[in-house]
Amino acid sequence: MNQQAQITDKYELDRGIENHLEHLKPETIRAEIDAVFRSETGSRLKAYMKTCVHCGLCSDACHFFLSFDRDPRYSPAGKIRQTLWEFMKNIRHITADHIRKAAIIAYTECNLCRRCVLYCPFGIDTAYMMGVVRRICHRLGVTPLYLQDTAHSHSAFMNQMWVKEDEWIDTIHWQEDDARDEMPGLRIPLEKQGADIMYSVIAPEPRFQADLIYKAAILMTVAGVNWTLPATPGWDNSDMAMYSGDDEIMGRITRTHFEAAERLNVKKIVMGECGHAFRSVYDTGNRWLGWTFPPIPVIHAIEFYYDLLVSGKITIREKFKDPVTFHDPCNIVRGRGLHEKARYIIHMACENFIEMTPNREHNFCCGAGGGVINCGPPFKNKRMQASRVKADQIRKTGAKVVITPCHNCHSGIDDILHHYKIPMTIKFMVDILTLTMNKPVNGTGDGL
Amino acid sequence: MHNLYILATGPLLYLSFALFFGGMFIQILFLVIETYRKERFMFSFLSLSSVLMSVAHWLFPFGSTVMRREKTLTLMGFGFHIGLFILPVFLFDHVLLIYESWGVYWLTLSGMVPDVLSVFVLSACVYFLFRRSTKPEIRYISTPIDYLIPLLVIFPVATGLWASHRLPGYPIAHITHILSGELLLSAIPFTRLSHMVLGFFTRVYTSSEFGRTRAAHDW
Amino acid sequence: MLINPVEDWNVDDRQENIHAWLGDLERIEEIQVSPDGDKVAALFVSADDTTRICVNGHIWEHDFTRIWYPRFSPDNRLTVLASDGESWTLLVEDQPWESRFDYAWNTVFSKDGKHISLVFQNQGTYGIALNDRPWDTVFPGIGHMVMSQDGSKTAAAVQVDRIIEGDIFAFQKGVFSAALDGHVWPQNFVNVWDPVFNCDGTGVAAAVRLNLYDYTVAVNGIFWPRPFECVWKPCFQPGTLNVVAPVRLGQRWTMARNGDLFWKNTYFQLWHPEFSPDGSRLAAIVAPSFGTWSISVDDRLWNLRHFDAITGLTFSPEGSRIAAVGMNNGKQTLIYDETSCRHFCDRVWPPVFSPDGRHLAAKIQINGRYTILLDGTLWKSDYETLWDPVFDNKGEKLMIRALDQGVYHKHIVALNAFTT
Ligand code: SF4
Ligand code: SF4
Q1: Cβ of A421 under 8 Å from any chain B Cβ?
Q2: pLDDT tier, C26 (very low <50, low <70, confident <90, very high otherwise)
């Protein structure tokens, strides 16, 4: 119980949350909450709120609840109680303090991972409801600073990290040069009209992990894929506005992404190893725009690698020896059921695979997803504490390498490994594949 | 006393049926209309096969992961819900009443079955109350109504048991049984008890999204 | 006057054997064909890992180590972006611009091809260069570059003030605006998107965000007083200063003109407003309800309403007809005149009308091979690669530019050859 007190004490003021609070009048709060209830939500929310029998079965699903020693305030229904319940029951008496609490809960104490949905007898989607709280907070201008900054970057340059157009193109050229050391003559085709596949990534790749683009290029080249990357905005498939509650910018981002693909007239979009981006283009952003399913088929990298392996377009030269384990990213497992395909790839490419327990749809979230890691340093301590069950789960495998095909999971687990001093390293699937697959021409095979 | 009995088995009975069916009907109607008006997109994602798969897992004991984790609750929960459904519908006395009024009848429970079910339902209620008041995470999300609802169930079942065994004071028990049963029935649309119907709606949507859009199991 | 890239419509089957001129250039990339169909260009990576370009078998001689983005101008000149490792410039027909930039990209041509512009970056500042003349003013950031139809002017959304990452408060005060030939609008906005020129290049309109929640349209720096929940790219009515834009109100979209609501119906989605060339009709891609897409012309919905998505909305040059590409269950089809073509394709490229609007052609892909669809009839051959079809001015002939088994062909075919 004291855990939260402890946390709240440690909560460094987040200026994004605090700044607007001062000026928030109860009337404004009431008007915005009312507007969201009236025009943006409907019977779905009402049915969830009415149906919930307060049985608490969802509690044990949530890694926050478990990691904070079963503090009721961190259970899924407990979070709803502190936020939407109050909003619905006491709309007249909601103060700035309530909004602060709601923002902290919705943005930093829920990863929108949807694990709790699997544990509720009625399939109540707490993640959706936390999203409604975020929407209200966004409309009130009460959002964590780092997350808001990311949403700003999206709105200005249509990518997550203020990457300018020339920086993107330059990165591609530079990765092309690097890849040529391994595979002379390799080309990363930018703006190739009518290619079969548009490959899209998230902005942290050109910013910090450009080698992933290079590895993707090696893979595409070996597999003989007719692919391209856009040189215009739309290359970034990530979408933090989806998590900040800024639906209008979320839609604009998704539209830009698909219109880049439409302009290049590709057959399908393959997206790099990112989970939240997949949720945005496949499940969320497209719906805001009115597309039931993506207008141009989108597949996640896992599905793509799986297809390449099954069709024999890439083959494994020598399996990866160190014991590996696999973290199922929420957004492509509970969000797209790609767990078996991921395991197929691992079995093909790795000698010694140890499952985490629980796994597949029941895997615990990495603690970083849902925009939580994007809320930045003020909330990192809490995120680390909330990841205790994840740390235990990883440690128990005794593996040396954690594979996870998602950027958020990657960063989140990286933090966990450091924080909990777990002697493991973390890899993307493409790291493993480029290391183990057959590469013609003087591919040295030690591409890492 | 007799007048009260007439009242309870006459107008009040009809009133409670009206409240129950009418209330539920209006709720469902509003739900569907509002969904159509504001969230019509939800209809685009419905998938019968996903719903059937999911419901099959959730409708049978231990079919879902959470049920396997929470064994006692699952046993109690299933016994409770089965009892609560079977008792009022198949009890000999109830069917007899219906036969006398409308001339239709169906299978009835016999022997020890009603007593066993009643005792089970009662103990489940006690278990639920115990669980609610002892587990901090459940206490935290419990409202007074949540404690009241099991009592609402205990009354008709306990008095029914009492009356059927003609224990001392049973006429009072009998009338209490009828009245509290009617109260329970009428309360369904207006309390969390409406989960008996709304729960199917939330399940249908969630399992469709999971099964079809997300190709994942939700159990 | 109608501009037509092809001079001689009587030459049939001009060929280029790319296999032959390749010789030992083993990897050919991104083949480009000139609008008149007479030039074929391809990038290749030479043994020393520099990228070079070869046009009709002739390799350009220059000292640039990296080139990319080969594009033909409408008047058949080949341009590429080129770098010597230090700086970037544009090569036009193997002649470099005099200007050198730290970075240059996004080559854009005027309709007649006489004018060329690009976006550049010098020492972390951004601007546009038109015909080798850089803007006098440069900015900390730039996006959405556009050129006026006659090619005399350029505009873009620009970042006016530098802010440090993480300063959400400075951002929310507004650091973006639009600039026309480097002259920035007097007012800043939180965001500026999709500037567009009017026909004669005297005005620019753009979608803007006034704060995190209020969207509207600004015309020459002055914004519509009425805020909306969201807006999409605006569009000038040809021959006038009227601006229309899709706007969102009460979670639904409709069309606004000069700040007032213009269309009566509301839609789940509405975008890509497009005027007929004479400005008399206004069409847009719409979703009347979630997941069903159609086209609305002057707020009247087409009878064809079952598409999962629609793209490539095109008016015929004389304005009487409309065509687009409809998508259903992963297949694409050409739609026009409120009907849908019976051929379902893997992919359909934006439709092309003959100058008189009587004929409609499009490049399509069926079963992995490319061919042309003309007025609903498939061309008798299919190819490995194909470029957009081009009509002659009289609407009697069609140029097909295709590549098959390493040989490029330019065919001029009479339209009646499709049916015989
Ligand atoms: S969505 Fe995930 S993080 Fe949020 S309450 Fe449910 S289990 Fe916890
Ligand atoms: S499991 Fe479902 S019904 Fe039970 S408390 Fe959680 S959300 Fe409510």
Answers
A1: no
A2: low
Please choose, from the candidates C405, C103, B71, the residue with its C-alpha nearest in 3D space to the C-alpha of residue A57.
B71
**CB contact, 8 Å: A64 with chain B?**
no
Whether A99 and B179 have beta carbons less than 8 Å apart is answered as no
Within 8 A by CB and 6+ apart from A118, the residues are A61, A334, A361, A362, B64, B65, B66, B217, B218, B219
pLDDT exceeds 80 at position A3: no
Residue with tokens 């939240």: A276
Check if the beta carbon of residue C403 is closer than 8 Å to that of residue C381: no
Domain A158-311: which CATH number of 1.10.357, 2.160.20, 1.20.1050, 2.60.120: 1.20.1050
pLDDT, average across residues A399-418: 97
CA–CA separation, A416 vs A396, rounded Å?
14
- Report the complex ipTM: 0.96
E-only strand ranges, C202-319: 204-209, 215-219, 222-223, 230-231, 235-236, 243-249, 252-257, 260-261, 269-275, 282-289, 292-297, 300-301, 309-315
Nearest-CA distance C288 → chain B (Å): 12
Two tokens, residue A219:
């893979």
Topology at the third CATH level for domain A3-143:
Fumarate Reductase Iron-sulfur Protein; Chain B, domain 2 (1.10.1060)
Compute the half-sphere exposure of residue C360: CA atoms within 13 Å on the CB side of its CA.
23
Per-residue HEC secondary structure of A185-240 comes to CCCCCECCCCCCEEEEECCHHHHCCCHHHHHHHHHHHHHCCCEEECCCCCCECCCC
- pLDDT for the residue A5: 41
pLDDT of the residue at B111: 85
> H/E element holding B206?
helix B195-208
Sketch the domain layout of chain C as residue ranges.
1-99, 263-420
C263-420 CATH, one of 1.25.40.10, 2.60.40.2890, 2.20.28.10, 2.130.10.10: 2.130.10.10
User: What are the residue boundaries of the structural domains of chain B, listed by start?
Assistant: 2-213
The answer to whether C119 faces chain A, any CB pair under 8 Å, is yes
Q: Give the per-residue pLDDT at B101.
A: 85
CA C299, C303, C304, C306 torsion-angle sign = positive
End-to-end CA distance of chain B: 51
Q: How many CB atoms lie within 10 A of CB B99?
A: 13
Amino acid B147: pLDDT: 96
d(CA B209, CA A122): 14
pTM: 0.95
Report how far ligand 2's centroid is from the alpha carbon of A333 (Å): 22
The pLDDT of residue C52:
86
Q: Which residues does chain A have within 8 Å of residue C213's beta carbon, measured at their own beta carbons? A: 139
CATH class held by domain B2-213: mainly alpha
The CATH number of A324-436, from 2.60.120, 1.25.40, 3.30.10, 3.40.50, is 3.40.50
Which ligand is closest in space to the CA of residue B192?
2
Main-chain dihedrals φ then ψ at residue C414, nearest 5 degrees: -75, 145
Q: C216 forms bridges with which residues in the sheet?
A: C208
